[in-house]
Amino acid sequence: MTDRLYAKYMWLISTIYDAGKISFEDIASKWDNAYINDLHQPLKLRTFHNHRNAILMQFGVVIECQRGSNLYYIDNPDALENDSINQWLLDSFAVSNLLMDNRSISDRIMLEDVPSGRYYLEIITTAMRDNRQLVIDYEDFFGNTIQELKVNPYFIRMFKRRWYVMALVLPGKEIHRFGLDRIKRVEVLESKFTYPKDFSPQDYYRDYYGVFHDAKPMTIRVKAYCEKPYYLRSLPLHHSQREIESNADYTIFEYKIAPTYDFIQEVLSHGNQLEVISPDAFRQQVKAIIQEMRDFYE
Q1: Is domain 3-107 given the CATH code 2.50.20 in the classification?
Q2: Which of 3.40.50.2300, 3.90.660.10, 1.20.272.10, 2.30.30.520 would CATH assign to domain 118-204?
Q3: Backbone angles phi, psi at 140, to 5 degrees
Q4: Nearest-CA neighbor of 117 among 186, 185, 183?
Q5: What is the C-alpha to C-alpha distance for residues 46 and 178, in angstroms, rounded to an integer?
């Protein structure tokens, strides 16, 4: 698929999805003014239907026509809303579209950089697609370098502006995380590995926050103060979030989650607006960290 065709497909999906239901005439009118229509070519009905079929094949998104009204709509929005890749592509395109339409005020739009091994991202995903083994040289934040590490790349994940590859390190049986920005060399081998049919990255991280996977899940409750309950309702910390109790002074949220380093850091990042109340062992762990931080300022 060429970049131009990809942009057309994403524009079409985004336009119909955002409209809910829309006529072909309105789609064609919007296309006339779209920034990606740099050749200023009209959208013909035959071309539109060809794009519909291609979108179904490439993204699994069904664009249907409502009888009587002749309005087009996304028949299976879950293909966008529940598919992380399709959702990412749609969101990324929407942002790209927004930026291109507003280049005249680009100095007034601030974005976060993702300084995370873009070069290796393509190499690793290609190896994943072909189930090929990798040899990597890796340096951690302490300056320790591991060379000639043979791995089976299972999946990739972005977290906190960093890309990670989760890989089975041979000859062991444990999955380890590797930040792409700390990989020094990657070699794609001819040898292949068998990706487990019963393995799911989503299930692997179901009870976890972030990239660490070194603690057992438990039921954790936190008390949110001030405006924090509204923040957590609009942007939950984790999919397991449940609201247990709420009054004018605070709200209690419950999670089924592992108390990993990443989750602890997230809790601490909310300052005095978030308090761990149970279990007590986790509360004491967070308390000890806060006490140590307090000692820095004595």
Answers
A1: no
A2: 2.30.30.520
A3: -85, 180
A4: 183
A5: 47
CB 24 within 8 A of CB 45: yes
Contact partners, residue 72, CB within 8 Å, separation at least 6: 16, 21, 22, 23, 24, 27, 63, 64, 65, 66
Query: By CB neighbour count within 10 A (0-12 exposed, 13-18 middle, 19+ buried), where does 256 fall?
Result: middle
Contact 80, 61 (CB under 8 A): yes
Give the model confidence (pLDDT) of 114-151 as tens digits.
Answer: 665 667 888 998 999 999 999 999 998 888 888 999 99
- CB of 20 within 8 A of CB of 64? no
Rounded to whole angstroms, the Cα distance separating 188 from 191 reads 9
pLDDT tens for each residue of 90-118: 667 666 666 666 667 766 766 677 665 66
Joined together, the tokens standing for residue 119 give: 């070069």
Fold of 218-296: Alpha-Beta Plaits (3.30.70)
Token duo for residue 189: 């081998």
Q: b/e for 227-240, b at 16 or more Cβ within 10 A? A: ebbeebeeeebbeb
